[in-house]
Amino acid sequence: MVGIAAGLSLCGKVPFIGGFAEFVTGRVYDQIRQVVCYSNKNVKICGSHAGISLGEDGATHQTMEDIALMKVLPNMTVLVPADFNQAKAATLAAAEHVGPVYLRLGRSKMPCFLPEGEKFEIGKAQLLSEGTDVTLFACGHLVWEALQAAETPRRPAPSSPARSTSSTAASATAWPRPSPSTAPHRWSTWPWTTSSARAAPPTRCSPTTTSAPPTS
Question: In this structure, which of 12, 14, 149, 173 has its CB flanked by the most CB atoms within 10 Å?
Answer without folding.
Answer: 149
